[in-house]
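User: Structure with adenosine monophosphate, tokens only please.
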Amino acid sequence: MAGYGHIMSPIFEDLGVFLRVGESTDVVTKEMYDFEDKDGKRIALRPELTASVVRAFVQHNPTNLPWKTWYEGPQFRHERPQAGRYRQFSQVGIEVLGSDDPQVDVEVIALGWRFYESLGLREVTLLLNSLGDDSCRPAYFAALEAYLRDHAADLSEMSRETLDKNPLRVLDSKRREDQSIVAEAPLMVDHLTEETAEHFAAVRAGLDVLGISYEISPRLVRGLDYYTRTTFEYASTALENAQNAVGGGGRYDGLAESLGGKPTPGIGFALGVDRILLACDAEEVFPGPTVAPDVFIVDLTGGAEATKLADELRQGGIAVDRGFDARSMRAQMKVADRSAAPYSVLIGEDELAAGMVTVRDMYGDTGQTQVSRTDLLNELTTRLGR
Ligand code: AMP
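Assistant:
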């Protein structure tokens, strides 16, 4: 719909792919499942897909930029399983590589937003931040580190350790003793260079034009190190606070280069399917009924005719379901009803001998009509308005 091609990347990758993108993050150091294969190679079950997609981009070097892809599939993280937090969970995501146009950021954020809307979810909040880039980070990191070191004595032991590895991550601390210090810490958004600030302003203006509301969340940091500039999270207020992120993403303008490719800007999101379903439950919105077939075939001559007819009609572009097990007419009609197909086609012994079938309009007022078997595809195509 928006020009994104489907990408299927492997469930496991060389451990290095993930180590290179998040050595100081929990996702990589604590939550990743990794093992040695028979050749002693270190392999990891993917904890997320952005690194894999960028690895594929670097490897195949597509020339048509921006390169826009989407994916879905299982991810694995070593977690203590609880509601909304699983060791295997599913994500749907998109990634765009090769453009740093703020309009790309707006497109990506809006596609995620519209996805929740299309499911009927209303209690989703978009949280937005800019994490700056190499042009603004040195000054900001220096200010942040100086501030945190000034207050190190009052930080939790865990945050003191984090401070030595990556001061930014201290802002993500959920520990009570850290909260008052984190609340007063210098903010990245106040240290953006002019260019980065302009980029962020353009993203916000683009969202305003689309009528997508957001909250600026200056303390939003993401679970991996590679994020730059625009970062965002979709949070469901219908879910409990600790597990209320139903999706998130951001720019990663340095990731391709750190995986051995040419400097290439990129941005994407991953939406958590399991949590989205929990949010649907909590908001009592449920995905629409499964798509009904166009036609349900009821065969009273044993079932082989239905096999032939279904194959013929499907090749003609008609969606067909049918009865099995040579069940009674009543039993097959019940299944036809349940399928919600607008038409049923009946094949009886007499009809089979005469080369005819009976088409029944299941909901309209055309009732039943005998149609010659050779005209059936035409008749159904016309009736279905194809
Ligand atoms: P992340 O890149 O870690 O922000 O993950 C993106 C989305 O995946 C999150 O917003 C969650 O909806 C979902 N997610 C992440 N970890 C888990 C997990 N362990 N179990 C279920 N969903 C998860």
